[in-house]
Amino acid sequence: MRSVIIWTLLIAVLLVSPFMGAVDLNISDIVQSNSLAAQIFYDIRLPRVIFTFFAGLILALSGLLFQTLFRNPLMTPYTLGISSGATLGAGIAIKLGLSSVLFGLAAVSLFGFLGAMLTIFLLLYLAQFLKGSQQTALLLLGIALSLFYTSALMLVFYLGNTIQNDMLIRFTMGSLSVIGWSSPLVISVVASLLLFAVYAYRFELQLLGVSQESAKLKGVESKKVTLILLLIASFAIGLLVSISGPIGFVGLVVPHIVAKLYPQTVQKRIIKTALFGGFFLVLCDTLSRALPTQSELPIGIITALIGGPFFIYLIISRIK
Amino acid sequence: MIELQNLGCNYDAKTILKNISLKIATHLTVLGPNGAGKSTLAKALCNLVAYDGEISIDTKNLQDYAAKELAKKIAYIPTKLEFYDEFLTLEEFVLLGRFAHKESFLDYSDADRSIAAANITLLGLKELSSHLLSELSSGETALALIAQALTQESQIIIFDEPTANLDPKNSKIIARHIKNLKQTHQTVLITHDLHLANFIASPVLFLKEQQAHYFEDDFFNDANLSKLYDVKIQSLAVQYA
C-alpha cells in the first residue's frame, strides 16, 4: 500500500513536471502550435524531463550495480571518485579555454568523459593489487582519488579567472537544463543499453551479490561479467556527468529506498531501482524549478539536501 | 578422478604446499594441523587460488575448464557461508546451484526449481524454504549449503570443515549426510574432527610441514595420530590434562 502511494505520487510528478517552472504552462497553451508556450514545452521542458528521467535511471542503476559487484553498500560511481574525475576533466577544459567544439563534441563534455573513464581504468588497475577480501580498500582508494581530484580542482580554480571559475562552479553544482533533443536522445539510448545489459546479466549479478567465490563456484565467469558491467556503467556515467555535471546521492540513496520498499533479492530490484531513480530525479528537478527562489536551484544541491539527511536516517534506522 | 602433479601453493610469499603428486580415484579425507594447507588444497581444486604444477579432473587440465563446465564437475562447501544480499531466501539460495545447468540469459526452468525443492526436502528444510538465509542457525545453514551443492549435481563434493561451527547433534546430522553422499558422489572431506573422519572412513591424506602422507587404511589409531599431531591422543580425543 505504501509503495502504491509512492509510485502514484512519483508518476504524477512526472506528468506535472513539464508544466512547472519559471513560466507556468497549461495544456490549452501547448496544443496551439507556434505559440511561445508550445515552444517552451516541446523544445525545453519535455526534453529536460526526459533527459532527467534517464539521468536518474543511470545514476540509480549504476549505484545498485556497483554496490552489488563490490558487495558494499557505500560503493557508487560517486563515492569511488568517478564523478570527481569527470568534474576535474571538465574543469581543465574550461581553464584551457577549450569552450569550442572538438570532434563534434563540446570540449568540456569530452574532457569530462575522459576524466570519468580514466578514473575507472585507474581503479580497475589498482584493484588488481587488492585481494578478494579487501573491497574496503578499493573504497578507500576511491575516496583518496576524490580528495586528490578536489585539490587538483582547487588548483584550477586558483589559476582561473572570474568567468572561467563561474562556469566551473556551475558545472560542479550539476545542471539538468538541456536545450533541444540531442542530449536526451543520447542519454536515453545509453540508459536503455545499461538497463538491458544489467537485466541480461541479472542471474550472474545475483550470484555475484552472494559472494565472488560463490559466483565462481557456481559457474559464473566472474571477472569477465564484472568487467563488462563496470565498463558499460562507467561509460554511461562518464557521458552523463560530462553533460550534467556531478549529481550526488541518487546512486547511493535510491537503491536503499527501493530495498526498504521491496525487501527482495538484487535480481528482483533491478527494474524497480531503475524506474524509481528516474522518477526520483524528476521529482528533485521539479522541486528545483518550483521553489520560490530567484532562479532555479542547481540539481546537485537539491539531491544532496534531500539525500544527505535521508541517508543518515537510513543508517540509524538500520542500526536499531 | 582427480590428479595432482607436483602441486605447490604459496600464500603471501610463504610456501604452503610443495610437490604433491597424487591420484584421487575415490573418496578422500584431508587432515593436518592448522596452517598445513588443507583449505588451500581444496580451493586449488576449485580453481579459486593460484597454484604451481598441474591439477586435472577426468584427465582434463583444470585451467581448460569453462566456469560452468567446472561447476558441473565439482562443488565446494565452505565452513562458513558469507553473503552480501541480505534478502536471499533459503529457496532462492539453493536454486542458485542450478546456474551452470540453465540456459544463458534465461530464467531457471521448472525442472531446475523442482530439483532444488527436492533437495530442500531431502535435507529436511522444507518448512524453512521461504525463510531468509540470514535468519538460519549455523546447523540449518550447513544443511542449506549441502542442499545447494546437491542441486548443482556435480560429480565431486568438497566439504571444508563442515562441523567446525556445529554442536554435537548437528555434527551428527551432517556426518550422516556426508556418509550417505559417498554412495552417489566422490567426496573430499577436510576436517579437524577425528571422530567425523573416522566415521566417514575414507582414505586419509595427512598434510604436515609442506609434506603429504597418504594412508589407504589403518590410519585411526592413537599412536599414529599422537605422532602426527604431536599431542597425546586417546580414543581419538585430545588429552588436555
Report on the structure:
The complex is a heterodimer of chains A (320) and B (241). Chain A has 320 residues and is mostly helical. Helices cover 75% and strands 1% of the residues of chain A. Chain A has helices spanning 2-16, 27-31, 36-69, 82-95, 107-127, 135-159, 162-173, 182-200, 202-208, 212-217, 222-244, 250-261, 266-290, 299-319, and strands spanning 101-102, 105-106. Chain A is globular. The model of chain A has no long low-confidence stretch (mean pLDDT 87). Chain B has 241 residues and is an alpha/beta fold. Chain B has a single domain, classed as P-loop containing nucleotide triphosphate hydrolases (Rossmann fold, 3-Layer(aba) Sandwich). Chain B has 8 helices and 12 strands. In chain B, the strands form 3 sheets. Chain B has a 6-stranded mixed sheet, with helices on both faces. In chain B, strands 2-1-4-5 form a 4-stranded antiparallel sheet, covered by helices on one side. In chain B, strands 11-12 form a two-stranded antiparallel sheet. In chain B, α4 packs across α5. The mean pLDDT of chain B is 92. The chains are: A mainly alpha (320), B alpha/beta (241). At the A-B interface, α9 and α10 of A face α2 of B.
Strand arrangement, largest sheet of chain A? Answer: 1-2
Report the CATH topology name of chain B.
Rossmann fold
**What is the typical, i.e. mean, pLDDT of chain A?**
87
Most extensive interface, residues per chain? A-B, 24 and 31 residues
Shape of chain B: globular
N→C terminal distance of chain B: 43 Å
Order of helices and strands of chain B: EEEHEEHEHHHEHEHEEHEE
What are the low-pLDDT stretches of chain A, counting only 5+ consecutive residues below 50? none
